[in-house]
Design a protein that fits this description.
Radius of gyration: 27 Å
Strand content: 25-35%
Largest sheet: 6 strands, mixed, barrel
Helix content: 25-40%
Number of strands: 9
Structural class: alpha+beta
Order of helices and strands: HHEHEEEHEHEEEEH
Amino acid sequence: MMIHYRFLLEELRYGGKQVITFVICVALSIATLTALNSFRRDVHGSLIDEARELQGGDIIIHAHQPISDKLQLAVDNLAQQNRIQQQKTFEFYTVVLSEIKDSSLLSSIKAVESAYPFFGTITLTSGLQLGEALEPGTVVVAQEVLDRLDLAIGDSLIIGDVAFTIADVVAFESMRPVSFLSFGPRIFISMTDLDQLGLLGRGSRVEHELLLQLSEPDDAEDITKILSASA
């Protein structure tokens, strides 16, 4: 903000009280602008943090078909340059069966890697991290799965061609807020078990995701351009 100092000197000579008031107003204006800018930065930072909590990554690549080789190569190259870390997830709906009860349930299956998610919170009733509880041959399920199928931790749950052991229960998942569009309770499986299910043949409706974590947050625009050019 530019202030005409000769004007201030004249005003100091002939109207001291008025100029003091003027200077105070100028100071308050500067303080207010500074506070507003700080508030804007805080809000912007908060929105970014909340977006990460909901998405699980800095950049999300989402598709209803397998990620193209060209795009995957671009992601791999960025990872080799240590500009990003990447994780894959696969999500689809299917009917799961209780091995000990004559019952079934439409559920949302999500196959994840051991470090999932980069951001956000998945709280398990055991207190373990998802990657600690979710081993090959096991599943981590929403409480609704146990309630509706009358099952407990340690029981078996059949998904596709595989019988899994229920290892833990999801108490909270920040990446899946309450929604009327959620058609079934969540079941997490290990990525290593995905191919054994026999459910992902041609024509299967699967949501493919690549979650990316940036090494440098300021790199987001450049990385987005690189990936867009390869999409």
